Amino acid sequence: MSEVIEEVKEAKEAAIGGDATVVEEFAVSEESVLSEESIVEQENVATNALKESEESFKTPAPPADRPKSTSKNNKKRSPHDKLFKAIFGNEASARGILKKHLPEDLKKHLDLDHLKVERDTFVSEDLKESMSDIVYKIKTKNQKKDGDVILFLCEHQSSNDKKMMFRLWKYAISAWEPYLARNEPLPIIAPLVLYNGKRKYSSYRRFWDLFTNSKLAEKIMAGKCQLIDLQSMPDEDILADKEFGLFKFFMKNIKRDNGIELWRECFKKFQEHIKLDK
Known about the structure:
Elements: H1 2-14, H2 20-57, H3 81-88, H4 91-101, H5 104-107, E1 110-118, H6 125-128, E2 134-140, H7 143-146, E3 149-157, H8 164-181, E4 188-195, H9 214-222, H10 235-239, H11 245-252, H12 259-269, H13 271-277
Parallel strand pairs: 3-4
Antiparallel strand pairs: 1-2, 2-3
Helix pairs in contact: 1-2
């Protein structure tokens, strides 16, 4: 644009002393060019202002140092959670709710007059994102038989969520860890769910229902673990085992102080087995 203006000025100077009409024409040309330059500048100003306005309406980006959630189980919090916590988090209300809704065969073990809402949570940040996180600690009527307390884990649910029982078990394990650290007996944990979905609740209410064969899962996982106790096996039975006898005998006696003596005894007792292996 500046080059065009210079050309107009040069032409104007060259026309001095000539026809006045020509001078006027050049003057008009210069004025029109200058006007065009002014319009371009105004357009640039308007464009920049528009950009600034658009930027001001954009949602600000989160700070770069803000930690990102690593939870894979983020649960969208219901707007009713605050109401749930206000009622269930009140000890007087909690006593009334449990007295009204718990079955008699459970209430007979509880001293509901000694109910305490646990304020100190014992779960990871990931679990806090997916749990309502209200726990009641209730003394038992027969502490010698039933333990000092029973913990009630309260959860607000607004959908038929099959994963709910899995989350409750994860929470229970987290709640037991401090007791294990203190070498104390684990308290019984009773899940309690307040459901307010659009339809009647029809999803799982037992952890075992998550498995294809719930009866088999409960029998195997809730029963005694399978045990091979070498210390309960007589040496005669171990010596008679031609396949794994040497292994069993060595593992049974591996805690001996004299390792060389143990090897000698192994070779002596199992020399026939060793010959067979050759």
